[in-house]
Amino acid sequence: MAVEVCVKAAVGHPDTLGDCPFSQRVLLTLEEKKVSYQMKLIDVSNKPDWFLKINPEGKVPVFNGGDGKWIADSDVIVQVIEEKYPSPPLVTPPEDASVGSKIFSTFVTFLKSKDSNDGSEQALLTELQALDDHLKAHGPYINGQNVSAVDLSLAPKLYHLTVALDHFKGWKIPENLTSVHAYVKALFSRESFEKTKAAKEHVIAGWAPKVNP
Ligand SMILES: N[C@@H](CCC(=O)N[C@@H](CS)C(=O)NCC(=O)O)C(=O)O
């Protein structure tokens, strides 16, 4: 049986790849390992019964390695993929595994913030500066010369950050964070990323109800 992965469809476009960073993380992992797979697009505003049967929690991504057993949660899924397809190895050493791990939550808080003095911009800047420092010492990727799991988790989140903050706040990653800029450029230009990214308009449509509820 084929490897299958359920991922989010674009908001209002059930036949188009959508804007879920956790879904893209799984697709990136499969692409980097050159595993062929069948992608099933899930309209999360109208979940089909068969999907709720395989994953009652109702979240994407969900992965089936060909044995008919469906697995949820991108953390678990990428581990399963790594065990089943060890080449090329994408394991991130434990000391680097949490680099950049607060970027997504601080980005979301800043994106939703209506108060420019609440410290949310500074909190995000602190996390981006820490990433820049790490990359300057150890880059170009988080674990050095080669892309690894932590980069594939962070890349879709940085994509959401750049697209949504530019659109909703006219905000960009500061120019002086040169290593972050080089990192983002390297990640976004990977073939795997080009192939699995959501269109900008779908990323924006996905965030719009959260920015202006
Ligand atoms: N911790 C989960 C998060 C997955 C998640 O939040 N997926 C969102 C889309 S980005 C979802 O399925 N939302 C639909 C819903 O909750 O009904 C993972 O890493 O896979």
UniProtKB/TrEMBL annotation:
Residues 67-213 form the GST C-terminal domain. PROSITE patterns: GST_CTER, GST_NTER. It catalyses: RX + glutathione = an S-substituted glutathione + a halide anion + H(+); L-dehydroascorbate + 2 glutathione = glutathione disulfide + L-ascorbate. Gene3D superfamilies: 1.20.1050.10, Glutaredoxin. Residues 10-89 form the GST N-terminal domain. One of its GO terms (biological process) is ascorbate glutathione cycle. It comes from the Eukaryota. GO terms for molecular function: glutathione dehydrogenase (ascorbate) activity; glutathione transferase activity. Keywords: Detoxification, Oxidoreductase, Transferase. InterPro entries: DHAR1/2/3/4, Glutathione-S-Trfase_C-like, Glutathione-S-Trfase_C_sf, Glutathione_S-Trfase, Glutathione_S-Trfase_N, Thioredoxin-like_sf. Belongs to the GST superfamily. DHAR family. This is Dehydroascorbate reductase. It comes from Eleusine coracana subsp. coracana.
